[in-house]
């Protein structure tokens, strides 16, 4: 839907291509046809902006504060406080409970969502060294400095070292193995249909489809040139098919 100053939902997103999680929330907002406006946050300003808007930290270690987050002001006119929600999974659950049209999370049930997410998180772990190493090359000035500082503390090494030449063969093997395991998991589901638009949801997307697509987009945008081409058509072309079918829900307003 078109965004205006009067939109009840404010969506906090990273300014740039390095958006590992916020596309999930963007997909859900658009799929549910909710009116919202986006506040773009430069990387180095995430913590400051979250604190200013009373958003809670999502991590126990640095960088502590992450995006996405939303502030829903839909109840303010009735005298209630704005609803502040952070973490993409919590946001999806909240939006389904508050705006039940076009459900994306609730129909699956918590247990099934958690099972699907375990598999998707495992794939993210396979992607992470490539994506973090390349993200440091996409940023500039204080944003690059902040990224390198926080990620060096988190990983214990400089981001560039995560995908150093002597680690690349093993890292690529982890990526191919991770995609293969996820493909096998998807094909083991009773709901799976070969060639379906969405690997988890079939004809219509569910939250797991959006979570997986966000991971794939992260890899596409934050990996070296040619990396996406190496994987997009693997495993029966599931990954490129999903990415294309999520495009109608990808425009950030």
From TrEMBL:
Supply the SUPFAM superfamilies for this chain.
Answer: Thioredoxin-like
Entry's transmembrane regions: none
Q: Which Gene3D superfamilies match?
A: 1.20.1050.10, Glutaredoxin
Check the record and name the InterPro entries matching this protein: Glutathione_S-Trfase_N, GST_UstS-like_C, Thioredoxin-like_sf
Where the record annotates domain GST N-terminal, the positions are: 9-103
Quote the PROSITE patterns the UniProt record gives.
Answer: GST_NTER
Domain of life assignment: Eukaryota
Output this protein's name: GST N-terminal domain-containing protein
- The source organism is Paxillus involutus ATCC 200175
